[in-house]
Every structure is written in structure tokens, then in C-alpha cells.
Amino acid sequence: MTIELLATPVTPEDRADLIALLMACVEGGASIGFLAPLSHTEAEAYWDGILARLEVGDRVVLVAREAVKRRIVGGAQLALESRANGRHRAEVQKVMVLPETRRRGIASHLMRAIEDAARARGVGLLFLDTSDGRGGARDFYAALAYVYVGGIPGYALEPDGTPAQNAIYYKTLAPGG
């Protein structure tokens, strides 16, 4: 497996892999902002919007690829702040791993790469939120030294439509890792 920066233009194969990744993660119960079942059309629209953000330069997308087939099996995003008073911070978004490839350390590799990408852009503070319910990843982020700061009851719906509190985290990045 390799972790790569997704560059534009994105190939049709990579676009198809990204759409399949999002759909599989939502279907698998990941709380990443969508309700199940996620339609192909909605997944396409989401990725088309993100790919446009890559062109603007305020989004970083990292992907995890299988070594042989080069299929995308995971991804993570960094939403960069453009306002002068916030350029030191960025939001980690949509950390996803195909359900059949989980528990192999892919998400941890993606998060280390996201942190490196943030540092390379002069970002020293990362924040994120996940569900505090079934689809969330509280233990995962805590293990990566992200600090839990609270949550808002009923903040979002799980993929099955159940209201859930979110869990908000941050991490101050040390220069150089």
C-alpha cells in the first residue's frame, strides 16, 4: 500500500474508485455526512465538488492505493483555511477506508500523511469531528493523540438516520513531526 497526494486532473479510474469508496463507507456505517443508501449520483456530485476544490487549492486529498492493482482503498482530506486569521489551522475530513481493507493500519497511515501535509503547508493546528455513535471513531483519534473537547447532542444523523452526538477533537502539531 502507498499513500499519495491526489493530483488533478483525476483519471476516470481514480474518480470511479473515489465514488465506490464513499458509497462503500456509507453503506458500511461510517458517519461521514451521508445517509444510507447513498446514490451513485450523490456520490458523483460530492466528488466532483471536492475535485473542483483541489483545482482552487484549498483542499488536499490523500489516497491509499493497493500496491499491485493501484486501486484506491482509502482517503483523507485536509480543508485549508484561506482567511488570514485562520491559515494556521485546517480541518481533517472524510477519513475513509474500504470496509474489506480495514484493520490493516491504512487509516493511521493516512492520518500521519495528513499531518505531514499540514506541516508542509505551515499548518500547526488540526481539528475534526466524528460521530460519538456507532459510526464514529473516537478510540481511533484518541490513540493518535487527538484531544477530545466535547460534542453537541443530536448534531448529525448516523447513516441509518439515527441522531447522534458528535465528538470534536484537535491536535497541535509539533514542527517536523
- Which percent bin holds the helix content? 25-40%
Overall morphology: globular
Q: Kindly state the number of beta strands.
A: 9
Structural class: alpha+beta
Output the radius of gyration: 16 Å
Average predicted local confidence, pLDDT: 95
Query: Which strand order does the major sheet show?
Result: 1-2-3-4-5-9-6
β-strand percent reads 25-35%
State the end-to-end distance: 22 Å
- What can be said about the biggest beta sheet? 7 strands, mixed
The string of secondary-structure elements, in order, is EHHEEEHEHEEEE
List low-confidence stretches: none
- List the total number of helices: 4
Tell me about this structure:
The chain has 177 residues and is of the alpha+beta class. It has 4 helices and 9 strands; from the N terminus they run βααβββαβαββββ. It has helices spanning 12-27, 40-56, 106-120, 138-143; strands spanning 2-5, 59-65, 72-80, 89-97, 125-131, 147-150, 156-157, 163-164, 166-172. The strands form 2 sheets. It has a 7-stranded mixed beta sheet with strand order 1-2-3-4-5-9-6, with helices on both faces. A two-stranded antiparallel sheet has the order 7-8. Strand 3 and strand 4 (89-97) form a beta hairpin.
Quick synopsis:
With 177 residues, the chain is α+β, with helices and mostly antiparallel strands. It contains 4 helices and 9 strands.
Write the topology of this structure:
Elements: E1 2-5, H1 12-27, H2 40-56, E2 59-65, E3 72-80, E4 89-97, H3 106-120, E5 125-131, H4 138-143, E6 147-150, E7 156-157, E8 163-164, E9 166-172
Parallel strand pairs: 4-5
Antiparallel strand pairs: 1-2, 2-3, 3-4, 5-9, 6-9, 7-8
